[in-house]
Amino acid sequence: LLGFFMILFLCFTPDKSDHCFPSNKSSSNIPWLETLNVDGYFSFDDTEHAAKDFGNRYHFQPSAVLHPKSVFDISSTIKYIFDMGSSSEITVAARGHGHSVQGQAQAHRGIVINMESLKGQEMRIHTGETPYVDVSGGELWINVLHETVKYGLAPKSWTDYLHLTVGGTLSNAGISGQAFRHGPQINNVYQMEVITGKGEIVTCSEEQNADLFYGVLGGLGQFGIITRAIISLERSPNMVKWIRVLYSEFSKLSKDQEYLISTENSFDYIEGFVIINRTGLLNSWRTSFSPNDPLKANQFISDGRVLYCLEIAKYFNLDEYDSMNQKTEDLLSELSYIPSTLFTTEVSYVEFLDRVHVSEIKLRAKGLWEVPHPWMNLLIPKSKISEFAHEVFGNILSESSNGPVLIYPVNKSKWNNRTSLITPAEDIFYLVAFLSSAAPSSTGKDGLQYILTQNQKILDFCNKANLEVKQYLPHYGTQEEWQAHFGPQWEIFVQRKSTYDPFAILAPGQSIFKKGS
Ligand code: FAD
Fold first, then answer.
1. Catalytically annotated residue among 73, 147, 193, 271
2. Which among 63, 264, 269, 346 is placed 20 to 30 Å from 409, CA to CA?
3. Which residue, 192, 241, 290, is CA-closest to 500?
4. Is residue 23 scored above 80 in pLDDT?
5. Facing residues of 64 across strands?
6. Active-site pick, 59, 97, 99, 475
7. Which positions fall inside the FAD-binding PCMH-type domain (predicted)?
8. Could you tell me the pTM of the whole model?
9. Would residue 303 show up in a list of annotated catalytic residues for this protein?
10. Within 183-227, where are the H helices?
């Protein structure tokens, strides 16, 4: 089995200086598409959009884009390709909202499926004792939020940004400040409808087709296309008390974060970020927040040091205002932040969850949203985080960073380890997200090349110091790297591929398996 996949395996190292692979724009390399009977339609001329993503660096032109109106459109397209056997080179990529950063939702000369076409299907909310929402895989999380709060309900686990699709984040993990308590989004799914690489429509859950269920969750789109998901809900609060405090020592921040994620009745959201001089964050971290003690807050001077911000939130309804404030004060009294840097605000629950969209609107207005995004996300074991912070924030990034650097721990005990997601082995690990934006055409410290070199320096340090780091939203070019990423899980990943997508038709942009060679 492994031998078979070695042949299929992609040692796919696209030219790093140019990730553009144009394609013949006519339908001629897939002539049968025009004869396939679908409820939606194929488009052949406006495929540029499908060759773009948020990363703005990879541009693989597909031959066609399917705008499905039904799951049968997707299954019959894949089945047709599957029936052509291993000699056909045609691949299929589900495209959610295209917010990958390295071409993961693209298919060079293949077919991209615009999953958002499916989202028109009705969202069904079950309000009983175990509430859930039954939603299309192409639905945006922001729409799930707006619809569920109408019933006083909401999903438990989120991403920081909600203009992403359900299928897109469930193919990765979906990690945010609630994951310490509820696990990532992939741990809050009851059931899915999936179309495999053979074109079969399969319902799967913990009880039914469990191997496919766990394989698809965090499976980087390799085993099936998620067309529906049933997601667990909880009662939604009306309001959120949102708090930011600063630390000048990383050890104090991490001690407090680890205390908070392990305490009963803690905050409902726990994150943090690094404030590196000259990023502009030094001035903006408290915009829209009010100081607890305005006089002392004005006296606070940073001295150009690297600072660390703990970001926490407590959910509440208006009739719980006093008890929420008391609980918040009690929790804050246990922490060691710089006292003059306590800043708070109160916003609606929807405003809080949709907070990054506000920045998106501002950045778009300045033409700063559609720039290259050489993002890097790392999962770092707790035992190695201080060594990591010392070298990365104290040395590699001590002078500049080109965007937010998030850092917060999560409890693995709250995560289901049967999914395809790969994490470090320790019970507590940190997510560290380097969310850089590159200035187009710059060759300076804000340019793409500089940021990529900095990312590589961080990775080299992690390898050299043996920090046992895992990449989140990983992207590799060689067999050795993918195998090292999966470690002991590699064999099961390969086995699932041979079971559910034996001709490696699905998600070619992940560059894990290559079709037809
Ligand atoms: P796409 O980029 O369209 O697709 C991603 C992958 O999933 C591709 O391989 C694609 O083929 C596959 N895929 C898409 N739809 C399906 C489907 N229905 N079935 C099977 N496979 C499918 N992630 C976090 O965990 N936490 C965060 O806080 C967070 N914040 C973010 C903020 C921003 C501004 C951005 C741009 C990204 C953020 N992400 C975060 C990353 C995000 O979760 C992933 O990039 C996710 O894949 C994007 O969803 P999408 O719908 O755009 O997927």
1. 271
2. 346
3. 192
4. no
5. 111
6. 99
7. 58-236
8. 0.94
9. no
10. 210-216
